[in-house]
Amino acid sequence: MGYAYDEQQTGALLEQIISRHTTAKQAQWVADRLAAWQQQHALQQFNLAFAAAPRFLGREPVAVEEAEAAALPLSLEGYTLDRLFRIWWLLQIPAEDKERYVDIIENLFHSAEMNELVALYGALPMLAWPEAWKLRTAEGIRSNIGSVLEAIMERNPYPAAYLDEAAWNQLVLKAFFTEKQVHLISGLDQRANPELARILLDYSHERRAAGRAVHPMLWRLVGPYISEASFEDIERLWFSEYNAEREAAALACYASGYEPARQLLDKKPEIRAEIEAGQLTWETVAHRIND
Amino acid sequence: MCCSAQLTETDLAPQSMNPAYLDAIKGMRFFDPHIHMTSRTTDDYQAMADAGVVAIIEPAFWLGQPRTGVDTFKDYYSSLVGWERFRSSQFGIKHYCTIGLNSKEANNEKLSEQVMEILPLFIYKEGVVGIGEIGFDDQTALEEKYYRAQLQLAREAGLPVQIHTPHRDKKQGTQRSMDIALEMGLDPHMVIVDHNNEETVKEVLDRGFWAAFTIYPFTKMGNERMVEIVKQYGTERIMVNSAADWGISDPLAVPKTAALMLERGIDRAAVELVTYRNAITAFAQSGQISEADFDSVKEIDQSLKYNGSTILRGGQQPRPNKQSTIIR
User: Fold this and answer.
1) If contacts are CB pairs under 8 Å, which of residues 79-98 in chain B contact chain A?
2) Pick from A52, A144, A213: which is nearest to B307 by CB?
């Protein structure tokens, strides 16, 4: 009811991971909170458990098995026990009454501290009534708090699936402006669009005029839309003294249908071969920059 | 909080900066258990980090003019556990806070009732190390009512209490604050009595409370007086803070006082107790302070070497050269 995936199975799976990481005392705390909430349905009980989780569960990193990860609607990469509990706890809200469900969660957002915001935004792909969180997500992208932005942007499938184009473009732009790991944005290639390519191209010109570096990942989003207007930039990149930039130029040309760009790549058949063999990818470029 | 002071010509003359004291305290770590960073600049954060401040507590307080609605309280509390905490982390400083309804605004009964309703939402939040700053300002009946109500909250939550003692009629206000805390069943070891001076300190210590001193120019303690206090009373349950806020105050009061203490012959271990350890011991009773966090907040994930410029990660702020006329 209201969920876009099998929430029963996900709930059971999260419970399994939680119980694997809790001591007897912690497990008792979880059981007590759940009993109190299910018996009394007092919102204060619900909010208290959500807020107090780190006090009683701590923030040890959690280990997820491959089979578990594959069956979950979101990535638990970098999760700690308190954060894992928090997303599971959200599944304990009755979802039939949409208005009440949304109110309860919005209220958590309103009084959230940093780690709670991270947990809430990271939980977007798991929430019921997925259409109801578009504005909330766009609001989250306006945040200035690094970890909150990462929770929305990195390895989170919700924005690509539900945001309209303008909000999506803001997300990607903000990721560049705040130096997030753009290659970890889910749905980056699927949601590429000409308007975003234009904005990013303008941005690259601004950076260049200021004598500041342009992140090579930017060309990933320009590549499919290379035209006469942007080809000059790609050529400059092609002759760059930096490996990452030359590789970005090659990958951008490979994604392009613009004839001069195809011809440029043809000049280096060995690079084309590397791309076709999956040896040169945007992932490898990202690693070259980050490692 | 500040009020107007008697100014002389010397007070108005431009000050020259002498950072020599930084050498005396090189390698020391400081904990400022009372500072209102919401009212301070990023330059202050930078200077605090440079002087060795590794962690701070920001008590909820009055913002300089009265609030007119509960929503602004809510947003303010949210910013203490949200934005300000993040801003602080960008300079490698771990930020904690205490949450409470300050005494000045407790005089607005209608609003105070609404604030009391939302307080439980915030006091259980991570990084909230106490209820504060609460207590008396004018010592009115309403101030007492909400002081008591919040002591009750603190007792239920097992949180320390940070007491603001009044500027006016301080001695009696301090006594009353302690009397009521004991009457409400609080263990004095869970109560930090702030803004002490020579007149109040003895009784506070004798009754088993923590005594905090605010080093604040013109209106509270000067740090030469602080040196004498430590020489006379020792270090047990004594801590130093800056209470720097929107008034003429000094966010480096704690490291500067440490330097002055060393210079005037107080040994390093004692200095460390009153400028670092004691405050941690008092507020760690909340279960919310971990010294390991002081280091992890400093971690820069990795720096990105790209086109010869280093891009900082993990939200750390790059450092501009303030000495240069050129801004890049």
Assistant:
1) 81-83, 85-86
2) A213
Residue of A nearest to B95 (CA): A114
**What's the pTM?**
0.86
CA distance B89 to A228: 45
Q: What string of DSSP letters covers B278-328?
A: HHHHHHGGGS---THHHHHTT-----EEETTEEEP-TTPPP---TT-S---
Among chain A, residues having any CB pair with chain B shorter than 8 Å are 44, 47-48, 51-52, 54-55, 110-117, 144-147, 179, 212-213, 215, 242, 244, 289-290
d(CA B14, CA A287): 52
User: Domain segments of chain A: what residues?
Assistant: 192-290
Q: Does B124 touch chain A (CB under 8 A)?
A: yes
Residue A185: CB partners within 8 Å, gap ≥ 6? A153, A154, A159, A160, A171, A172, A175
- CATH number of the domain at B27-291, out of 3.40.50.150, 3.40.50.450, 3.20.20.140, 3.10.290.10? 3.20.20.140
Give the pLDDT score at B100.
Answer: 98
Whether A112 and B82 lie within 8 Å, measured CB to CB: yes
Nearest to A194 by CA among A237, A161, A162, A229: A229
* Structure confidence at residue A17 as a pLDDT band (50, 70, 90): very high
- Candidates A33, A46, A82, A114: best to mutate against B (most CBs of B within 10 A) is A114
Minimal C-alpha gap between B33 and chain A (Å): 20
pLDDT of residue B309: 38
Asked whether the predicted pLDDT for residue B303 surpasses 80, the reply is no
pLDDT (tens digit per residue) in A68-84? 999 999 999 999 999 99
- pLDDT tens, position by position, B79-135: 999 999 999 998 999 999 999 999 999 999 999 999 999 998 899 999 999 999 999
Q: Which residues of A touch B127 (CB under 8 A)?
A: 113
Q: Which residues contact A191 (CB under 8 A, 6 or more apart)?
A: A160, A165, A168
Secondary structure of chain A: what % helix, strand, coil (to 5)? 70, 0, 30
pLDDT in tens, A106-140: 999 988 999 999 999 999 999 999 999 999 999 99
